[in-house]
Structures are given as structure tokens and as C-alpha cells.
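Contributing new complexes? Match this layout with zinc ion.
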Amino acid sequence: MTAIRTVSTTPFPDQQPGTSGLRKKVSVFQQPHYLENFVQALFDTLEDCQGQTLVLGGDGRYYNDVAIQTILKMAAAAGFGRVLVGQNGLLSTPAASAVIRRHKASGGIILSASHNPGGPNGDFGIKYNINNGSPAPEKVTDAVFERSKSIDKYHILAREAVALDRLGETRFGAMTVEVVDAVEDYAQLMGELFDFNRIRALLTSGQFTMHFDAMHAVTGPYACTIFEEQLEAAAGTVMNGQPLPDFGGGHPDPNLAHAKDLVALLNQDNGADFGAAADGDGDRNMILGRGIFVSPSDSIAILTANAHLVPGYRAGLTGVARSMPTSQAVDRVAAQLGIPCYETPTGWKFFGNLLDANIVTLCGEESFGTGSNHVREKDGLWAVLFWLNILAVRGQSVAEIVHEHWAKYGRNYYSRHDYEALDIDAANGIIEHLRASLTQLSNRSFGGRQISIADDFAYTDPVDHSVSQHQGIRIGFSDSARIIFRLSGTGTEGATLRIYLEQYESDLAKLHLDTQDALADLIAIATQLAEVKQRSGREAPTIIT
Ligand code: G1P
Ligand code: ZN
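Output block (do not edit by hand):
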């Protein structure tokens, strides 16, 4: 008979989930009872866990192994009937979403701080996904936070750790722990959506080279199976394929700044034809061609325009959605296709209802996130396979496809400037100052540019009519240029101000400018309006993507 222990605890005041779950420094999670409090607050909020099935896994970062065992013991104490765990405790975020859906689980816990650095001095995180595989909506995360503020005890099974290295079932108290092969399930799903024969023909043609950088994070095993085994890409196509607790000391964020080795391989003379990378938990992607970077906002537009070439989407798209700060490139494609384009707040959780209601098929965010109705998370490898499928069918280079797209639809020059680790009061001051300036901004013009909209973005979900306020300061101009300001909801150090800049260009002679040059006027307006320098002391952004 295994005993359930009840442990007294006191609340932590800071357990409010952000854009994507609760994310803190590892040292914060290592405080006694910190993780347990949050997990108990979640289980209390879910109310009936009796006999339910839970999915559990993480991106393998430092503390993943410890946290998994704690959660298993707490799940058993809460009365779950079965927990499906990824082998060795690993599950990419999209794979977790797929497992929840395929096995009809009541929900899942994913341990990840996404693209944030790992290791003892890095970040850790925990997020909950509901039974459709989607990140928990705000009403759930708000309820968990409320519960966390009054928690005074948690329940945990007094038992030794369970081995997670071999597939199969183990009894754990009254609960069953089943270690699952998530790679196999996920690869099968990808094979149903994409034309693997055609992609294999491209990859083995001798005319095409690619590199995929797994950044020592969770996608390594998935990428090796799919690219190197099933699609027969050359051995070594997958770089940094072994998941490591500290991501090999790197920053597992697939962008031009953090995937430098990959970028160099694409930019050299006779560089590879195609390059891609995914982040810590496998939901983000970066797409590169020889000498060209595909901005994520352009990527979702190009996938939408070419979806008819891909088996899983040949039947047509019901609609598309993008987060508010994402460029309007996809809006132009949707208009041409005669399908709706929804504008949601930042964060994948806002796409869940639209996908469930089948009013959108593809979704995208400027933050290297792209996905579809196949799961309820953004999906890095899915985006890479989508691109490969298009390349295989069209027989053109990435650059040719992008340039043709711009020529047809015009180009939305786009960039995001991040000011990281700002003093929290200074950052809040910037947003409050902008909010206070909105009414007076409405009719102003800057260097011949007339402001046509200036608001604090609020969103009403078209399906459940829930309202989300204060989702970013949005300034739009009559020529469809935009500047958006918002504070990050995923950072763990001070505050991060994000400034999103977008300008549309349809003049064929001006489609190939340097992005920062093309946006220079808007950048000057943005920093002036926000009084960035006066209020933060910063001369320049920390990172530009
Ligand atoms: C960031 C991105 C957002 C994304 C989230 C989770 O959130 O901007 O698009 O959904 O990470 O990957 P933020 O830090 O801006 O709140
Ligand atoms: Zn991620």
C-alpha cells in the first residue's frame, strides 16, 4: 500500500502564468514547494482528476527530470488513472499536443521555457494544455493563479522515482505510467500531411542540400527520424541533434542572432539550398534559403499561398489567423483567396477556439511560430516540412519563391526591436505614456504619414466572446504601415519592450532594400513616440529580428 502524504505549504505571490505558462529562473523553481504549489493549484482548478489521462513531458532542459518525477507523484495523489510520458521525459510542445489529441487525454503538462536559455542559471517553465491539445485559455490560467494565492497544502505519493527510459507501462500507486514513443506518433502524423515521396526525391536527387539545426534541444530525435531516416537526407543533415540539459551552452532560439553557424552555412559560396532550425521545445522555426532569410510573417503568407500544393491542405483553407503584431502579408493572400483572416492577441492560446470551430486552418506569429489545425500548438518541424513540400513541387529556390511572392502581392517590410531586461517601472512607464497619448495621436501625421488608428488592442473571441484587454499599443498609418508596442509576457528578467515595425511596398523597384533601411523612418517615429531613450536610458535595442 503506497501512502499519499499531505504537505503543508504557504503561497508564493508570483505564480501568474504569462504568454505561455509559468516561466521563471531555475533557482525560483528549486525553492522548496514552489513547483508543488503550482501543480496542486492546477489540479485543484481542474477539479475532477479521478481516473483521467494526463500527458507529461518536456524539452529536456535542466530540472526536467526532477520536475517530471514530482509531477508524477502528485498526479497519482490527485487520482489520475494514467499518465502518458514521453520517453526519457521528453516531448516537444507540438508532439505533446498531438499525443493529447490522439489519446483523448484530459490535458497535458509541458515542462519548457521554450527558447529561453537553460542550465542551472537558466530558465524553467511549466504550462498546461487542455483536452483539445491547446494551451490553456486565460480563464484557466487566471483560475490557477487565484488558487495559487491561497494554497496551504499539497498531496504527493510517497514513492521512489519511476524509470522513464523504456517504453511500456508501470503501476505507480493506483495510477499507470505509460512511457510512449512520441517520435513515432508525430512522424506518422507528418507523413499524413506531406508528400514524403516527393520530398524524398528532392533530398536524394543530388541537386539539393539542406541543414537542420536542432540547437541541442528537443527536436533532435524527431528530426533525425524524419529527415535522415524516413526522407533519406544525407547523414549529418541534422546539426546539434542531441538534446542537452543546457542546450550545449547555446540559446535555443532559432533566429539570425542565435543560429549563427547555420546562417553561415547558407550564406557561404555554394551554400546549402535550404536551412532551418527549431527552438528549445520545438514549436518555433526559422526558414533560410541560400543567401536569404524568410521572415516569419512572410513565411505564413507564402505557406497560405502555396497550401494547395500540399496533400494535407489541398482541399482548401477555411481561413487563416495571425497575431496582431504579425505583419499583414498573410491578409493580402487571404483576400486574394477569398477566405477570412483573423487578428488575435499574441500567444498561441488565442488560435485554439478558431481552429476548433474550423474557421481557420493555418495560423502564424511573427515570433517564428507557424502551425495548422493538425495540432493546437505552433509546430517547428511541420513548418520545415511544409516548405520542403513546396520546394519539391515547385522546383524553384527559396529566394525565387519569396521574390515571386513579393512581386505578386507586394512586400511587407517587417522587423521587431526588443529592449531586454529593462527596469520594470521604466517599461511600464513607456506603455502608460503611450496609452495616455492615444487620443491626441489619432489625427497626427509624421513626415507626410497620417495616423489612421491609434488604440490599445482589445480582442473579442468570435467563438466564445471572451474579451482580452490591453494586448498592445497599435498605431496604424494611412499607407498601412504600423508600429506596435507591447511588453513581453515570457521574460524572466526585468521587462522586455517589443517594438514591431511594418511597412508595405508594392513598387517593383523597391522590393529588395535592406529591411532596417526600409524601416528607418518608422523606427525613428517609434522611438520618439515612446520616449525610449529618455525613459529607459537605452540608445539601441538589445536584439533585432
Ligand atoms: C513571445 C512571442 C509570442 C509567442 C510566445 C511563446 O511572447 O512574442 O508571439 O507566442 O513568446 O512562444 P512574449 O514574450 O512577446 O509575450
Ligand atoms: Zn517554444
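Reviewers usually confirm one structural detail per submission. For this one: Residues 253 and 299 are 17 Å apart (CA to CA).
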